[in-house]
User: What shape does this take?
Amino acid sequence: MRFQVLEFIRIQGFKTLRDASFPLTTLNIVTGLNGTGKSTLIQTLLLLRQSYERNTLFGKGLLLKGEYVALGTGLDVTAKKSDSLKFILKWSEQKPLHLCFKYAPQSDLQPLEESISLGEYRSPETISLFNKKFQYLSADRVSPKPSYEASGYSIYDLNSLGNHGEYTAHFIAESGQKSLAVSALHHPEATSSTLLENLDRWMAEISPGLRIHASMQPATDSVSLGYAFDQGKETTADFKPQNVGFGITYVLPVITAILRAQPGDMLIIENPESHLHPAGQALVGKLCAIAAKSGVQMFIETQSDHFLNGVRVAVKDKIVEPEDVKFFFLERDKGSAAHASTVISPEIDSNGRMSCWPDGFFDEWDRQLEKLL
Assistant: This one.
């Protein structure tokens, strides 16, 4: 089965975006000041996904409350002076999909316009947004604790780590010995192509010597998770996650999701760099670049200049091509009387240099340094 890449999306009348277009590629990075609508692109994808899963998207309408996102009612999400929500999506080798939803201010279901025709559109199972080649990781991920939930349905039938990464430990315990689908994600020091070996090696760049141990506990239908550390030729006993730094557990679903990804997958991650030191943040940017070059379509929301620089260096080092990376910076539309946003898309060249630096676009380091000097 051939899978399609989302190449373009236009959003009209949704939250702060009156009319915004996003030409997309494999690595799409969204940022912006707080309250400027930087989450809107990702929320659009999540709304479409959850509406499709609930069988409302193509028959009834856009469902605003669900497992992926809960945004309230039409009154909460429709831009001022708009009487509808409109989305145009274009996948490779597909005709554009036009979706228009009526404004229902007191309802969490925005009705589908009757005039929309889907007769000529291909079956959605070829699209990663709607099939099992999809993974979303919320900014609100699982925290350190001695054991985690097990769900065979999630990791096998849905092919999911959970929206909060809650089934990551179970996935590692069950699939740690499977080989990576993307050979480019093989760590230079890994002794095999297994997920667990490469997970250990990449995570050790965040916390030196780290070893991950996940094992099923059938009596309690749970999974135990422990961290050990290489000490010379020896390895320490396992430490409980709550005794090892918060950031390790918080980023574990992110690294696992990237390493297990396959070409044609869609991976949406909010703030993948949270709770990591700068070198770790840059490493996550590098891994995202490697996966994107290998055909994994990624949507990343971030505020981290270290993540940005990890991607920029990856471009300079020829790990990923400039055309495989898109930046979307959302800022307040100062010319509008309403709370509206505009989108700026700085381009990156083969040396990792940006075409422009809008005010507020990863420039706070320079601002503070100037004050110090």
User: Anything to note?
Assistant: Residues 140-246 form one domain. The chain is about 25% helix and 25% strand. The radius of gyration is 21 Å.
